[in-house]
Every structure is written in C-alpha cells, then in structure tokens.
Amino acid sequence: MKELNQNIVQGILPKRKNESYKGNYGHVLLIGGNQELGGAIILAASAAVYSGAGLVTVATHPSNHTALHARLPEAMVIDGYDTAKVIHHMKKATTVVIGPGLGLDDQSQLILKAVLTACTPQQRLVIDGDAITLMASENLKTPVAQTVYTPHLGEWQRLSHLTIEEQTKDLNAHFRKQLGAEVVLKKHHSEIYFEDEVWQNEAGTPAMATGGMGDTLTGMLAGFLAQFPNRKTAILAAVYLHSRISDDLAKTHYVTLPSQIIQRIPCVMKDYATKFDF
C-alpha cells in the first residue's frame, strides 16, 4: 500500500494558463438533495465550485433552489426531479456526481437508473452516498463512464457484502476489480483503490468526524476530475488536500466543519500551484 502525501500533489496543480476561460476547466453536474437532505448537495456543489470547476450545475429538489441561489450564486440550478431535464443537462457535462442527499425513494431510483444509462465513456462519474446504497439494493452494474465510488465503511459493506471486519486490502481490491471502477474508501486514513495499486492517505484528523465531510470530498473530487486530465492523480490530490486542509484547521479548531474546508480550498490549491516549480 503506497503512502499518499503532499508529493503526489506537486505534479498536478500547475499554474493556470493566461489564455484560458471557464470552458477549459470542465462542467460538473451534481445530482442529489431531496427535501430533507439539501445541505448535502449544497456542500458538494460548493466544494466543486471552490475547487475550480469551470461550470457547475446542480440538479436538486425544487425546495433547495432558493438556498442554492443564495449560498452559491456561481452555480446553475435545475429541477432534479425532472428526469428528462437532468438527462438533457448531462449531455453538456464532463463530470457527473450522483448521490449526496439523493434519498432512497422510487424517484431517486428512477433518476439513478436514467443517469447510469445516459452516461458516456468520455464522462467521469462519481457515485456517492445514497446512490451507492441504491446500487447495492438494486444490484446495478457500474456504467460505461470513468467511474469512482466514494463509500464510507457501511456503504462499502452494502455494496461489496464484506463486513467491516472483512474489509482487508486484498478483499477490497478483489471486489474493486469486479466493480471495474476506482474506489475511495472513506475512513481514518482513507484508502484509494485503483486497478494496479492501492494508496493510503496519511493526512486526516478526528476533527473531521462531522456531517457533510464526505459530501465536501465528493465535490472536491468532481472539481479536480473536471480540470485535470490524469484521473488517478486528480483523485489522489483531492483526497489528500481535503484531509490536509482539515489537519491545518485542527491546529486551532476542536472540530473542522465542511464549510470551513470549502473556504480554504482555493488558498491551498494556490499555495501548492506556486510553491513548486513545474
């Protein structure tokens, strides 16, 4: 198992070219947020924006639209319960996220199945939260998109049928192969499973143990995947910097909130992009 530290970040955060515009940095579509769990999709979308995605569209329950417009004016917002509209906007996206606050009802299943069918091999897809639970309960297969699963231990247990005690590196890697996708297993010192190797994040702190932390990581992953061509290093950098920001905050904070991490993302990316000579 390889150690994930700041060295991996040095190679993928170059300074932005002078001649560039928002179209150079990807278009992220995030799908989720029912009436009860709108905060999850707001955090994920905020993290995607603050991570530098060129465009961000959020497909969510209409009850969340006002909060999103007020909290994140940089994002576009559509009705996440209008399947035809969601699929139409998918065609414009380079990176798609589904799951944060999605819910487990029939409408959520319908949207998930439509998204899995509509995605293309050229798109990057992050499957998170409730979407993972639905994938497991409905026995759905990984789609043709370049897919990343982001389960916590309980979600991974439902998807892999491995109890938490059975979740060893070898068994996790074996099931990842069956999935045919990358896996970011969220835990203390999160593990990242690729086809040819496994990484363990050395950053992270108990101060991160609070609601919305995983949604924030999902948004960062989407923002990085939208911008950076190398999928593996984009995933590794997002996972590491998410924890590294929390480590820095934990020096003066007993608890680090997801919203605090989001605010720090551009500063830390700038620091890494200018600190090293590319």
UniProtKB/TrEMBL annotation:
Q: Which domain of life is it from?
A: Bacteria
Q: Which residues bind AMP?
A: K186, K187, H188, H189, S190, G214
Tell me which InterPro entries the record gives.
Carbohydrate_kinase_pred_CS, CARKD, Ribokinase-like
* Cofactor(s) needed by this chain: Mg(2+)
**Segments forming domain YjeF C-terminal:** 5-272
Under Gene3D superfamilies, the record lists: 3.40.1190.20
What reaction is this protein's catalytic activity? (6S)-NADPHX + ADP = AMP + phosphate + NADPH + H(+); (6S)-NADHX + ADP = AMP + phosphate + NADH + H(+)
Q: Name one GO biological process term.
A: metabolite repair
One function term, GO molecular function aspect: ADP-dependent NAD(P)H-hydrate dehydratase activity
Question: What EC number(s) would the UniProt record show?
Answer: 4.2.1.136
User: Which EC class heads this enzyme's classification?
Assistant: lyase
User: Can you tell me which residues bind (6S)-NADPHX?
Assistant: A40, G101, H152, D215
User: Which spans are transmembrane here?
Assistant: none
Q: Which PROSITE patterns match?
A: YJEF_C_2, YJEF_C_3
- Give the PANTHER family listed for this entry: ATP-DEPENDENT (S)-NAD(P)H-HYDRATE DEHYDRATASE, ATP-DEPENDENT (S)-NAD(P)H-HYDRATE DEHYDRATASE FAMILY MEMBER
Stored NCBIfam families:
yjeF_cterm
Family to which this protein belongs: Belongs to the NnrD/CARKD family.
Q: What is this protein called?
A: ADP-dependent (S)-NAD(P)H-hydrate dehydratase
Q: Which gene encodes it?
A: nnrD
